[in-house]
Amino acid sequence: MTGIREQQRAKITTAILEEGRRQLADVGAAGLSLRAIARELDMVSSAVYRYVASRDELLTRLIVDAFDSLGEATEAAIAQKSEGAPAERWVAAAHGIRDWATAHPNEYFLVFGSPVPGYAAPDDTVYPGTRVPRALVESVSEAAKTQQLRRPHRSSGHVPDAVKSDFDRLRQEVPALAVVSDAVLAAAYTAWLQIFGLISFELSNQTRGVIEHHREFFEMAARESAERIGLHSAR
User: Fold this and answer.
1) Structural domain boundaries enclosing 12
2) Any idea what the CATH number is for the domain that residue 21 is in?
3) pLDDT, tens only, 116-128
4) Within the chain, where are the H helices?
């Protein structure tokens, strides 16, 4: 009986989360309502609260799921190019991120859009939220370990002391970064931000009338960012 109850609970919880994702498209994160979800699932409101305690808990679950889904897509894209050159792994990761975002625009803006009024993300969201940048910088670290990394293209090598302290803290949190110089880290994090900036502008239609061939433009930008980081494009 316990197994049956657990299966039923999992089934209902999944249905609640799926309806929550559908609501993201209709009313946005700020408009999420457990009462509306209960109505759509033909449940009484009090029953929904046995599975999800509050709107904030629902938001947290949706955010964690989105971060994990994006992280898995990015890690899988890198793994598919595990035998390729570092630049190819970087470009594959960038496309993996974009492909996920264009397939899940509402979830993308849930985690990378405007903050939801009245909601403060708990610590549960921190690790899932770092999966993508960790995957990217660890791919750069692997290139450094295998001597497939050169000095960042067009870099002066100067990193302000305040930023160096940020990077020192990052190295404590991600030991793999110990082999990556400050200049390379600066180029890699700038490229990471560029990836999401391009995607956000594309999804919010900010490039209308300027860029029509988004995938091709994104490919060009991703390859240029790999070059700036100093990732070898061939073994």
Assistant:
1) 1-53
2) 1.10.10
3) 999 999 999 999 9
4) 2-27, 34-40, 45-48, 55-80, 86-103, 105-112, 126-129, 131-145, 161-173, 182-203, 214-229
